[in-house]
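Worked example

This section walks through a single chain of length 403. The input is the sequence exactly as stored; nothing has been trimmed or padded.
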Amino acid sequence: MPGTCRDLTRLRTAITAFFALDGFLFAGWVVRIPGIKHQTGASAGDLGLALLGVSAGAVLTMTLTGRLCRRYGSHQVTVVCAVLLSLSVALPPLTHSVLALGAVLLIFGAAYGGINVAFNSAAVDLVTALRRPIMPSFHAAFSLGGMVGAGLGGLVAGALSPTVHLAGLAVVGLLVTAVAAPTLLRHEPPSAPTLPHNEPSSAPTPAPSAPSAPETSRRPRGRTRGLVIVFGLIAGCTAYGEGAMADWGALHLEQDLDASSGVAALGYTCFALAMTIGRLSGTALLERLGHGRTVVAGGATAAAGMLLGSLAPSLWAALLGFAVTGLGLANLFPVAVERAGTLAGPSGVATASTFGYGGMLLGPPAIGFMADWLSLPVALTSVAVLAAIATLIGVATRRAVPN
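Given that input, the structure is written out below as tokens.
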């Protein structure tokens, strides 16, 4: 079991690499969706059904992955899922029918959901061992990996076919896994340091994810399970906003504020960049404010930002609102997953992640229905409403789990 600062630093580097790889591979796949749609001859509706394979695979796998982490260890499961994710990202361009595309996306989604639970569980163990709130830094690596993957995909889209591009991503994924995996496989997840009797812990000791620990076989019960679900709701409210911004932000700027397509694309860029900056500064923020106040401040900031972004009459005010929303939402998901994992180990991470993914799935179609009934600007205010709900949950749970 790692005990030295050098061991823990190496573990942090390896886990960070897997977070970045996950964002890189997923973004690389997303930017090639139009080419794969053309290749399979899918209609918009057929493509939507095929893309549900990613979501279905992720949601179905998350709870199972929590059990696998308890039995075999989060480090081992992270490595296996990284290999599967790297291999499966090369499969979509090899298909030539919607049915085949949906099937391979089910595999890709299963690997994506699995690695998210596994490396978040590994990160929670490391956060507890270090006794520093570094969880946002891992999610910042995911965001940075996604930005690099999307940027690279945009650059090579005109020169490389989806088959060659995604095969290249698979090779990169396997290489990164080969470099980072030995560090994870050599060490069991670290446990929390032993504290003197007169020194209170800054967080409750989580159930270790090492397979030999008897606590890992227990499921959260009673009050603990309720708190895990509450933190899952915060994750869901956050992911709802992320999904809404990704799918509807640019359309709002173009349709309602008469922005050009190029300027409209800046909407999500402002949001994503602000979220990355927020996560990079998240550790300092958590050390200063603590988890509860960070959730309250982040939720309130996101609610105010989204009200500005959705209802502002000018383009630049809307862009500012999108950026403020990104800053506000940045650390809510990392904090929710960390708190759930601290309370219940991999099971807690799996529950919070499932709620989060559910929110991301619910957001885009819910906003679409509301936009038909009302208007898109009004529909986008639902992001502000859910951010406000996350704020209220943060206020209610500030004393439930110590910082």
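What to look for: Residues 194-219 have pLDDT under 50 and may be disordered.
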